Amino acid sequence: MPSSSPRRYRAKPASAGAAARDWAALPRDILSAVFLRLGPCLEIMRGAELACAAWRRAAVEDPGLWRRVDIDVGALASAGLRKGWGAMLRAAVDRGAGRCEAFSGPCDQELLLYLIERANSLKNLHLLCLDVPNEVLKVAVKKYPHLEDLELKYVSSPSDDMLISCDLTTEGLASILDNCPLLESLHITGSFKYYEMDDELQAKCTRVKNLTIPKYSIHG
Questions:
Q1: Does the pLDDT at position 220 exceed 50?
Q2: Confidence (pLDDT) at 101
Q3: Mean predicted confidence (pLDDT) in 82-97
Q4: Is 86 in the same domain as 116?
Q5: Would you say residue 16 lies in a domain?
Q6: Which residue range is the domain that position 86 belongs to?
Q7: Residues 174, 204: contact at Cβ < 8 Å?
């Protein structure tokens, strides 16, 4: 009986396409879908778009990626952007080409004025307010009659978790309610003189479905 020797199998050489995929040649719609899964802002600007020139162009030239601009304060600190966050947020808003509908992140007076000029289609606005005067806020809400969701948090710096005195006055609150008829959610943190609200202002507050305002001062 002839002896049987084990057969030797040789792996077939991988095809050129399988061996080296040209990730830079992915269609724009696929790239956009991938980028949106990564995150709304920081993950693209500090990650995906740095991979190659093609991905950079896809990130910069697609306004659809920037309908929502959202930067977490903790992520900013982790990325070492304690001072450069303003320029990054302005760049993200510019990429939206006027189509940005939601903004969430730290905001000072300069950035809020920039939003008024470059992002006038906002429906959702969540601000970590850094020295934003009432007068500037009143100007802003007049430019956003389509606001549905507004959140105002007052802190002393992007990396500071301690709340400070809320600069919002009853006049400022009235301006928000008068100029944003579609507002369904309003959340305010900080110190607010709730006891100065008159009956008319309290009646306006009842029109907001989800309303949170501080009732007591945190001074002292």
A1: no
A2: 93
A3: 85
A4: yes
A5: no
A6: 66-212
A7: yes
Residue 82 and residue 57 share a domain:
no
Contacts of 202-209 with CB under 8 Å at 24 or more apart are 204/174, 204/177, 204/178, 205/173, 205/177, 207/177, 208/177, 208/183, 208/184, 209/184, 209/185
Cβ-Cβ contacts under 8 Å for 42 (sequence gap 6 or more): 71, 72, 75, 76, 79, 88
Q: By the 8 A CB rule, do 130 and 156 touch?
A: yes
Position 149 pLDDT exceeds 90: yes
Are 124 and 40 in the same domain?
no
Q: pLDDT higher for 132 or 10? A: 132
- Number of structural domains, the chain? 2
Mean local confidence (pLDDT), 163-185: 84
The Cα 29–Cα 52 span in angstroms is 17
Query: Whole-angstrom Cα distance, residue 203 to residue 191?
Result: 21
Residues 43 and 151 occupy one common structural domain: no
Q: Which residue has the tokens 């990650």?
A: 47
Strand order of the sheet with strand 102-108? 68-70, 102-108, 124-130, 149-154, 185-189, 210-212
Amino acid at 12: K
- Average pLDDT of span 60-75: 82
- 151 and 46 together in one domain: no
Distance CA 44, CA 59 (A): 7
